[in-house]
């Protein structure tokens, strides 16, 4: 069910979110021509409505939120307390959390007068064994997935990361390999750089003491990362954002589903506190938009030189590219896979589940000062026959196509 912008504005007021500008006409078209941001929402929604369980998006311009939209359902009847999607529904934004982590790490480095070219090894837990090549990794190499960690089979928990570091680098040439471990390790670096107190391992500790201390450390580093982001990244980005955490907190949280819809239960993906930094923040699209605007249109989090570096060198972002219409953009994706949905590609795995539900999240900024924050609580499934496999046009492609259509419509 569509939720119109005027209704959502009232809801935002009730829930205390940032004020949305009533002036939707902005000078961001070709040669500074005017466009209406509600028209951008229409161009995107006509591509996405009906092709997922639900989604929410926020359009911001020059750091000010202009238009918002929500479609579909946040909870389905099989989970009880069914309700329509609103922009105040929180979801685990998956790898879009990495942009928050990148900003937090850069803030700690800047505060300590360190640079991204400094080495990371002295900020890892002191008793960890450092394998071959670990002492050569820089902060920038983690930020840009050029650390040399190429094995993606490791988890993001304390023990898995300790093992990864002890086994060292497979390829000393440090190729670019997207690896969640790069960002999971940042929770240790941020906590150490920011001088958080962490239990130390006593000398000559036996195996029992080692296990006890490491369990404490795992929680302490995870909590320190959350606390730092709440106070210095999220908390400075908007009212009420200093309480955001890496787990669902609502009594009946918004859930993620398969699409096309089935009778399966939804998924919230649970508590990711102990595997945070590379994923896990539970947020709304309004909060995502507020963070992104604060990051790039103020210096409350980091200096402009560093936020520009993030988007230009893909430190905390996945893409730096141009739309079909020639407008440059930077973007970060997050997602949790649902079913293996492509018969040709997935073969015998077709129809099998990764999770009960699927999520797709995006932070996208265009060089004409337009930003889009987006969350879909299912796979986006655009095909003429809903029993066939998707045609590959995920939400991102629809957003870019909608943007191009909108941009070209500007009055000359």
Automatic annotation (TrEMBL):
Q: Which Pfam families match?
A: Beta-lactamase (PF00144)
Keyword list (alphabetical) reads: Hydrolase
A Gene Ontology molecular function term for this protein is:
hydrolase activity
The chain positions of domain Beta-lactamase-related read 43-345
Q: Does the keyword Hydrolase apply?
A: yes
InterPro entries hit by this protein: AmpC-like, Beta-lactam-related, Beta-lactam/transpept-like
Can you say what this protein is called? Serine hydrolase
Question: Which taxonomic lineage does the organism of this UniProt entry have?
Answer: Bacteria, Pseudomonadati, Bacteroidota, Cytophagia, Cytophagales
């Amino acid at each position: 069910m569509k939720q119109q912008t005027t209704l959502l504005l009232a809801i935002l007021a009730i829930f205390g979110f940032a004020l949305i500008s009533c002036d939707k006409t902005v000078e961001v078209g070709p040669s500074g021509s005017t466009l209406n941001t509600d028209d951008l929402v229409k161009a995107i929604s006509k591509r996405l409505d009906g092709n997922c369980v639900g989604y929410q998006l926020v359009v911001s311009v020059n750091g000010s939120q202009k238009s918002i939209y929500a479609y579909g359902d946040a909870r389905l009847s099989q989970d009880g307390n069914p309700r329509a999607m609103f922009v105040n529904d929180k979801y685990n934004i998956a790898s879009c959390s990495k942009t928050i982590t990148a900003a937090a790490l850069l803030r700690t480095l800047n505060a300590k007068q360190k640079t991204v070219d400094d080495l990371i090894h002295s900020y890892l837990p002191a008793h960890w064994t450092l394998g071959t090549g670990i002492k050569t990794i820089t902060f920038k190499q983690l930020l840009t997935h050029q650390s040399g960690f190429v094995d993606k089979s490791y988890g993001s928990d304390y023990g898995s990361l300790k093992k990864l570091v002890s086994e060292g680098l497979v390829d000393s040439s440090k190729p670019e390999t997207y690896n969640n471990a790069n960002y999971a390790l940042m929770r240790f670096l941020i906590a150490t750089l920011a001088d958080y107190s962490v239990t130390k391992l006593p000398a000559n500790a036996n195996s029992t003491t080692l296990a006890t201390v490491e369990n404490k450390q795992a929680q302490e580093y995870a909590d320190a990362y959350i606390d730092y982001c709440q106070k210095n990244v999220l908390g400075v980005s908007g009212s009420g954002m200093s309480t955001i955490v890496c787990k669902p907190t609502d009594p009946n949280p918004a859930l993620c589903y398969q699409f096309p819809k089935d009778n399966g239960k939804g998924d919230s993906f649970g508590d990711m506190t102990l595997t945070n930094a590379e994923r896990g923040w539970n947020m709304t699209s309004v909060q995502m938009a507020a963070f992104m605007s604060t990051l790039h249109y103020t210096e409350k989090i980091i200096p402009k030189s560093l936020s520009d570096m993030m988007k230009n060198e893909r430190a905390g972002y996945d893409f730096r590219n141009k739309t079909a219409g020639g407008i440059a953009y930077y973007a970060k994706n997050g997602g949790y896979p649902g079913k293996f949905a492509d018969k040709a590609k997935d073969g015998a795995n077709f129809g099998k589940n990764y999770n009960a539900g699927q999520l797709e999240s995006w932070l996208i900024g265009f060089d004409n000062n337009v930003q889009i924050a987006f969350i879909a609580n299912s796979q986006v499934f655009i095909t003429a026959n809903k029993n066939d496999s998707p045609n590959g046009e995920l939400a991102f492609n629809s957003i870019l196509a909608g943007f191009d259509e909108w941009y070209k419509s500007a009055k000359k």
